[in-house]
Write a structure and sequence with these properties.
Length: 230
């Protein structure tokens, strides 16, 4: 915009640039990392993992696929977040509630934030007809609870949940206790049952596995290491 000077010029001064303003303009603004939210559009490619479960209460196996989205790829804030879940099976018996469950879980995934609470909610569902033991002696109170266990396994695999790994010392002690228990009770392990826990073991209240034995008056779980003696 042009300004007409009508008065006589009696002096002048060169205006110096503000050093702080110059530094702010020169310094590039740090981009904030993208957090998972419901407005992120689904990309054409997602990383997927499929888990197979075969509950004894169902005629056919179920295949649970969890697709993950990669946020802030190539930066220090790169993270893998669950985006959607699908459950497929030949059995149509549970079709309606399975579809409803997958849609709700997928919506929670896309909403963002801490999604680990889903694991506890799903694993707390109990079947009024009673639960079942899956392979390895782990008790599942319902089919929904086993789906929750799969989601927990996946969240641990991508680093959203911490995995409670036993130390090598604890594993060695449990192996020694198992060998001593089987020797004292003359428990012969068949090839068909190799890797399973003693048949007369009881249920662990912590990991829901039939792996608790009593030795010297102390109940110890051979699966997770939980012990009543500390």
């Amino acid at each position: 915009m042009t300004v007409k000077i009508s008065n006589k010029i009696v002096g002048y001064r060169v205006k110096k640039a503000d050093p702080e303003a110059t530094q702010e303009q020169a310094a590039p603004k740090e981009l904030q990392p993208i957090q998972m939210n419901e407005y992120i559009e689904r990309p054409d490619f997602l990383l997927g993992t499929t888990y197979k479960i075969k509950p004894p209460i169902a005629e056919h196996a179920m295949y649970i696929t969890i697709n993950d989205i990669l946020l802030n790829e190539g930066t220090d804030h790169e993270s893998r977040q669950p985006y959607e879940v699908f459950i497929n099976s030949k059995s149509m018996e549970h079709f309606q509630w399975v579809i409803a469950l997958t849609r709700v879980i997928s919506a929670v995934f896309r909403k963002g934030g801490d999604v680990t609470f889903l694991v506890e909610e799903l694993r707390s569902v109990y079947d009024p007809n009673g639960g079942y033991f899956k392979k390895g002696g782990v008790f599942m109170p319902s089919l929904v609870a086993e789906i929750g266990a799969v989601i927990e396994k996946h969240l641990k695999a991508i680093g959203l949940m911490e995995s409670e790994e036993m130390s090598e010392t604890t594993k060695r002690i449990l192996a020694e206790k198992r060998a001593e228990f089987e020797a004292s009770h003359s428990t012969a392990t068949n090839d068909d049952k190799a890797g399973e826990f003693p048949p007369n073991a009881t249920m662990c209240g912590k990991c829901s596995t039939k792996a608790v034995i009593v030795m010297d008056g102390c109940a110890t779980c051979l699966s997770c290491g939980d012990s009543k003696c500390g």
